């Protein structure tokens, strides 16, 4: 089961996606779909089997580079990406899903001031991590 949530911290806040190979492949597929047809997407509506109490929207960004990246808003989070970025992130996530990998992670940052780093993790956390708070 794909799980995702925001982990606040004074020193190292991050947005965390956890799952097994198929879960991460589903996330990569969503990003690839977004890349092929950039449009606002509610991740919870798109990935109905995923678990999260956090609202997350994928939002197409084409202009101001300051709008790129994961940002917290008053009603949840928004991940502002253009099509090229979404495709490249999908490729990075798919590297984690290769059968020979037992575990691993990638931290995705676009280099924009104020963005929240996104960590995608395979097999590094127990299955109940991020679920106990539901």
Layout of helices and strands:
Blueprint: E1 3-7, E2 14-19, H1 21-36, E3 41-42, H2 43-46, E4 56-60, E5 69-73, E6 76-81, H3 83-96, E7 104-108, E8 118-122
Parallel strand pairs: 2-8, 4-6
Antiparallel strand pairs: 1-2, 3-4, 5-6, 7-8
Helix pairs in contact: 1-3
Notable traits:
134 residues; 4-stranded mixed beta sheet; 8 strands; 29% strand; 25% helix; single chain; 3 helices; alpha/beta
Mean pLDDT: 90
Query: Could you give a short account of the major beta sheet?
Result: 4 strands, mixed
Query: Which value, in Å, is the CA radius of gyration?
Result: 14 Å
Query: How widely separated are the two ends?
Result: 14 Å
How many individual β-strands? 8
Helix content: 25-40%
The helix/strand order is EEHEHEEEHEE
Q: Report the total helices.
A: 3
> How much β-strand is present in the residues?
25-35%
- Label the structural class: alpha/beta
Shape: globular
Describe this structure in words.
The chain is of the alpha/beta class. The chain is 25% helix and 29% strand. The chain contains three helices and eight strands, in the order ββαβαβββαββ. The protein has helices at 21-36, 43-46, 83-96; strands at 3-7, 14-19, 41-42, 56-60, 69-73, 76-81, 104-108, 118-122. The longest helix is centred in the N-terminal third of the chain and has 16 residues, at 21-36. It is globular. The two termini are 14 Å apart. The model has no long low-confidence stretch (mean pLDDT 90).
């Amino acid at each position: 089961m794909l799980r995702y949530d925001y982990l606040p911290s004074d020193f190292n806040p991050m947005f965390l996606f956890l799952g097994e190979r198929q879960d991460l492949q589903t996330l990569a597929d969503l990003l690839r779909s977004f890349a092929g047809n950039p449009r606002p997407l509610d991740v919870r509506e798109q990935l109905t089997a995923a678990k999260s109490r956090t609202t997350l929207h994928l939002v197409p960004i084409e202009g101001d580079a300051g709008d790129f990246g994961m940002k917290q808003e008053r009603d949840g989070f928004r991940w502002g990406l253009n099509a090229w970025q979404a495709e490249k992130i999908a490729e990075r996530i798919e590297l984690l899903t290769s059968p020979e990998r037992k575990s691993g992670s990638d931290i995705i940052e676009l280099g924009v001031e104020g963005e929240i780093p996104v960590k995608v993790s395979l097999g590094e956390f127990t299955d109940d991590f991020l679920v106990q708070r539901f």
